[in-house]
Amino acid sequence: MKNKKTILVLILALPLLLFSNDFCENDTESFKKHDPQKDRLEKIYNISYFEKNLPEVDYSVSGSVILWQPIEGGLELGIFRPSDQNSDWPSINMDFDYRPGFKVALGCHFKNSYLEAFLEYTFFHMQSSKESRQKGAMQSIITPWYNETEIPSLVLKAKWRLKYDILDFKLLRKSYTGKKLVLSPLFGVRGGFLRQKYDLFTTLDYGKINSFNNVRSFLVGPKTGVETNWILNHGVDILVNFSGSLLFQNFTTKRQVDNFSDPQSLDINIKTKSKNFNPNLEVLFAINYQNFNETKNSYLNFLAGYEFQYFFNQNIFQNVQAIENRADDNPNDLMMHGLTIKFRYDY
User: Fold this and answer.
1) 12-28, pLDDT tens digit by residue?
2) Spans of all domains in the chain
């Protein structure tokens, strides 16, 4: 038990040590002998990143292009019921494709404490659709999205829309933990809006039957993590960044379903509100190249990487269905992953 407490104290104290100036001992003489033109960071050990590499830089601006694939559990349209009950019952799954977005960020470097502060906005809006196609001799579709569990149609269309608007503020301090490794603990705040719509449409002999599902949420919470740079030659770094947030989310969910007997009236009309704390994880693997302009005393950075964003308990549509005893009341998670291309200018 004592060993567990000791390990826990060491883990909690590590970020504070890394942020302190005394943790990084200034090896001034070895730096003076080093020629930074031959190798940007070679043989500089246990010294502040900014003290050796960004002596006069104050601000930074950056822009990123992202190509992410969002995936959320529990968005299946339904399953086909075959005419022969001994045959397979194929499921109808939503298509998840890659979609573009962007990020913009501003940064500030505090020379006295060697801290970096960043404010970044992420914009990712997408739309995906799916239409069921009959497979063999099918009789009907079983779906949880209508009041009638089984619909006498083999044509079912769905459209999923996701709007992801997130603002991140973080403080970090880059410090050497080896000749080639830079470790940067970070603390910050994450907030923004996460909105989803999931609509279904089916056509019967007497009209079109719709199912509209909408969830809007505001989120905010603390963020912590670590960024690592493995320094190679000629201005090239390998980056591996990890961070996590505990987000307070306020959900507003609406569900409207047409009546099968009278498509002009609503069979279901529900509006619910809920609050919850949900964790969020972020991971980035990337290669970074930076070039120093000695005349202008500025840096130009180019980053290419693969990013993962994981949000727990986001399919609140399932919660509304659970009210009607039609689905599990444990919401599925939302994951986004894909390419991130970033340009950053420090001046």
Assistant:
1) 444 444 444 443 344 33
2) 26-346
